[in-house]
Amino acid sequence: MRRESGIFQGYFGPGNRAGRLIALASMLGAFIAASVSLCLGAVSAEAAAPSGYAPSTAWTVGAVASSPLPGNAAGFGAQIASNNSTGQQDMVLGTDTYSQDGINAPRFLPSAASVAALKDSCVVGRPVREQNNCASYLGTFTFPHPVIDPVIGIQMGGGGSAGGTQPYDWCVAGWNNTAIAAVNGVAPANGLLTLQSNSSTFVFANNALTLPQSYIDGTKCGAPTSYGIAYLKISGQVTSFRLANTWMQEVTKNTTNAVVSGVGVGGTTVNSYLPSADVSISKSAPATVASNGTIRWSIKVANNGPADSHGFIVNDAVPANVMKPAIVSAPSGCQLSGRNLRCSAAPPGCSGSANSTVPSWVDLACANSAQAGTTVLPAGSAFGPIVLSGVAPFAAGSVITNSATVFGTDSDPNLQNNDASVSTTVRAAPSLSLAKTADDSGVRNPARLGDVINYHFRSMNTGNTTLTQVQIIDRLPGLSALQYSWPGMPGTLLPGQSVTATASYRPTQLDIDAGHVRNTASGSANPPSGPAVIPTPSSTDTLLMAAPGISLTKTADASGVEIPARVGDVIRYHFRSQNTGNLTLTEVKITDNLPGLSALTYSWPGPVGRLLPGQEVTAMASYRVTQADIDAGHVQNTGTTVALIPPEKPISSLPSTVDTWFIDPAEAYLANTGAELGMSAWAIGFFGCGLALRLVSRRRKPTQTKSIST
C-alpha cells in the first residue's frame, strides 16, 4: 500500500466540513489525512457554547490570527493567536479561512520543524494498540486587555486510515491531546480551569484535555470517528493563555506485513468567549417641579444578562442649576462628592475604575486576580434604587436635565441602554404681593376737616415669571391719583422686583364721625399665560380722635315788664346752641323746663335737629310774669341743649341760667340819679316831683335782669 505523508495532508478544508456547531461555538476541527480510505470526523451534538458568553468575531488567518473582542471590548483591539516562538516555529496557522456559521476560528498545525521525525516512522512497525506521540506544538492567545472568566473552545480532532479491502488489513487512529500550558505566562494552578462541556465526551485532568479510550476504540476501520468541542473556563482576570497540542496515533489493526501509513497530522481549532452582561440604567423624575421645590431622581441598574456581572460603576452629575444635592437613599458603595455621584460595585478585594481607552469599560484592580471572577450582580437582578435630591431653581420654565451612566467590567452587547436622562421643568408660579401703610402725621388731635392721610404702597413680583400690566387698585372715594415709581418699564415687574406708589386722602366728616378711615387696596397683573394674578388685599385703619362738644347761651329780654312789674308782663328768652366739637350732632334739642314758657321756635342752619361741627342753632320763647314771680322779685330760668353723637350716644351742654329781677320805683330813681339816703331836702322834693310825673305819664322802663350762663 502506498504511504501518504505531509503536514497538511487530509485536514478538513472549507468544502469538506463534517457538520456545523451552533453559532456561538464558531469553531471547526481540521484534521485528518488518509491514504486509501479516509474516515471523516463527525461533530458531537452535545457540545454547546457556554450560556451567557459571546464568541470573538471573524479571524484573519495568516502568519498570525487576530480577532476583535465581542461587544464593547472590541475597542481594545484584536486578540492575537500566534506561534509560541518565531525562532522555534512550533506551529503554523491554517492558510485558509476555516469557518463555522460564518464565524472564523484559527486552526493550529504543527510546523515542519516540529514534525521533522514524524512521517510514517511514527507508526511503521509498531505493534497493534501501541499509542505514539507523533507531534507536539505550542500556540499562544493574547488578549489586548485583561478579561474576566473567559471560556476557550477547543475543537478536539481525530481521524483514521485503513489499508486493504474490507474488512481492511490494517487501521490507524489519530487524535489530539491539548493541555493549557500557561495562563498569564505561568503554569495554571489547580482549580483555575474548569471543564464546561459534558465530561463523558472528554477527559480533563492536570489541566489537559484528551479523548477517552472509548473514542480510540470507536475508531473502527471504515467507520467515521466522532469528536467535539471542549469548553474550558479560566477563572479570574486573564491576559493570555498558551496551548500545548499533541498529535497522538495508534495502530488499531495490522493483519499483514504491509507497510502501515499514518494518519495525516490534524489541526486544532480554537476560539475564545467572553461573559456578556448587558448592564443597563434607568432614571425617573417628576415632569415638573415647583419653583425652589425639592426634586428627586430615582436611579436603577439592571443586569439583563445573559451572563452575571463582575462589577460596574454608576456616575451621575447633578445639574449646576440644582442646589443642595444630597443622597436620600442608596445601596452601599455610593458616594456624593459635591455634585458628582459615584456608585462602585466590585468583587471583594477589588476596586473598579473607568478605562481611559474604552470609557464604557471598567477595569478591576484586585489583590488576587482570581477574585475578579466573583459575581456582583447576577443576570436578571437589579441594583438600587439610588435616590438623589436637590432644590430646583426659581425661574419658571427652567429645565433640569440629569443624566446617569453605568458601565461594567464585562463585554456589554448593548451600549444603547448604558445611559439615561430625564428632564424636569420648573412650573410657572406667578405671584404678586401688596403691602400698604398709612402716614397719619398730617392728622390733628382731635381730627378736623382738612387733615391729610398719606398712603404708601409696595407691590412685589414674588413669583417666578415676568408680570405685565401691573397695577395697584385703591377705590377709596376721594383718594388722589397714585404716583408710581417703577424699577424699569412701567407696568412690568421681573421676578423679585417691586413697584412703589403714594396717594393722599383728606378725611371727611363721615370719617371723623366714624372715628377712623379703613382703606383696602388690591392689585392685578398678567403672567405670560393663564389668568390674571391678584394679590392678597392689604388694608389700613387710621384712627381719628373724637372730641364732641356743645354749648348753650341763653338771654332774657325784659323790655315787656313794667315798673313796677305787673302780672302778665312778658319776658322773651333767646337761646343760641353751637356744636363746639368735631362730630356731627343729631337730634339736637334745647330744653327749658320753666312752667308757662311758650314752645321754642328754632332757626336751623340745615336739616332740623342736625348740627355739623361749628354750626349753631338759635331759638326763642316767651313767658308771662305771675304774681308769685312779682312776690319773689325775679324770674330765674335755666336751659340745656341735648343731642346725639355717633354712634347714637347722648351728649348735653352745661346748663345756661338767666335771672330777671323786678325794680320798684325807689330803686329805679336811685338807680337813675345815684342819690343816697340822707340826701338834702331839695333832693327829696325833686324825687317827689319826678315820681309824680312818672305816675302821670305811666312810661315803661326795662326791668333789671341778671343772666347766668354756664
TrEMBL record:
The keyword Transmembrane helix applies. NCBIfam families: B_ant_repeat. This is Putative repeat protein (TIGR01451 family). Pfam families: DUF11 (PF01345), DUF7507 (PF24346). The chain crosses the membrane at residues 21-43, 677-696. Residues 429-533, 547-652 form the DUF7507 domain. Keywords: Membrane, Transmembrane, Transmembrane helix.
